[in-house]
Amino acid sequence: MSRNKLLFVAVLAASVYTWPGVAAADLAAGLSAYRSGDYATALKELKPLVDAGDVGATNTLAVMYAHGRGVPKDATKAIRLYQFAAEAGNIDAQFNLATMYSSGTGVAKSLETAAIWFSKAADGGDAASQRMLGIMYFDGLGVGKDRAAAARWFRKGADGGDTASQRRLGEMFAYGQGIEKDEVAGAAQLGKAAAGGDAMAQFEYGWMLANGIGVAKDQTASVSWWRKSSEQGNAGARFGMGTLYEYGTGVERDAKEAAQWYRLAADQGHATAQNNLGTLYERGLGVRQDPLEAARLYELSARQGDGDGQRNLARLYRDGVGVLADAVVAYAWLNLAASADEPNKHALAEREQIAARLSRDQVVEGQRLSREWKPGQAMGRSKLKPVLMAEQAPPSMQLTQASFTGRFPARPAAQAGVTTCNTRCENSTCYRTYDSGKQVEYQARQKWNPVTNRFDWDAGTC
């Protein structure tokens, strides 16, 4: 052994055996300063310990470099420090090093290497690492996909009190994801995670309570859990709260309250909430009626591939409500909704109804628009002149005998020598009752209004 190496060993031995109490006190002081945000003091206390080889101090200094806290941000230096502490057996450093490899921060991304370090920390009892290893086995990331192994690791993390592990294990049981389906066990794990504050678990457990799946049905408790989840910002729970208030399920029906919850979820990008909020704006329920805002919300939903959003947006293009009417664009949106992996059950029939009133060239153009559309994008521009559906409709489709009377206005009193009628319209769809008792449903025509600079609906005369 060289003289320099012997000297290093002697110094290291002195640091271990001569002043361990001082080192422990310095480490505690450094960690306390770090946690309180006093990074200058933390650096002062930790640096000598790092130089002496203290793995706990080394891991904390690595965190400081990784996030630029009290020192210049330097992911490469953080990796070197994590590596030293991890190889010395520090579980926190093993977890942190694994996350750096999984994201490719400061080092070439390697899910395989990340799995190795998560595995070491998981074997050491770290619940978060057990959960991460479970996720990797569940999805086959850096390791072979193995749902049974995923469940085992989630179980270890759950037993260690990790709420996210409890939720993932609960989901596997509730939905039978690679293990035998057990809704009771699923609800039990989701309930634990919900009680532990996991927002997604609160939402999912609330759903199980609402539907009596794996647990006794309890609408009041469901509302309570969804509210807790919503307060933590969970978009799904906020959407759920909106549906409860819109339909009066477990709460007093309140369209205004529904709109507020839908708005929160819609602003977070929840496609179904965007669609539902659009319907409230279109109908003027709980909010001021605003067809332009309805069209904007339907568009946001439609761009995400939501079938109801695409269908509703198509209807607005068909009728020219909140947008410039164009039956070709309407056809394109319906074509997307009808051709999705999970097609909208109404879109196919509505697409064919519009197709029957378009020329072959117009249908081909609509197909081109939908074929070239990409998720997240607006629909492309049609190369054809905008097609007004009312002008395309044959007389038999403009004037039809209704088989129901609920939407039609009252029959007017007859006047000698004059045909009288009462008319009521919902956007472009009008319902007319004549003095003879005859009832017809028809499409109003669009007429340009130079004063408002937009198309208005013209229901016509009797």
From TrEMBL:
Keywords: Signal
Pfam families referenced in this protein's UniProt entry, alphabetically: Sel1
Signal peptide: 1-24
Protein's UniProt keywords contain Transport: no
Superkingdom of the organism of origin: Bacteria
PANTHER family linked: ERAD-ASSOCIATED E3 UBIQUITIN-PROTEIN LIGASE COMPONENT HRD3, SEL-1-LIKE PROTEIN
Protein name per the record: Sel1 repeat family protein
Organism expressing this protein natively: Rubrivivax rivuli
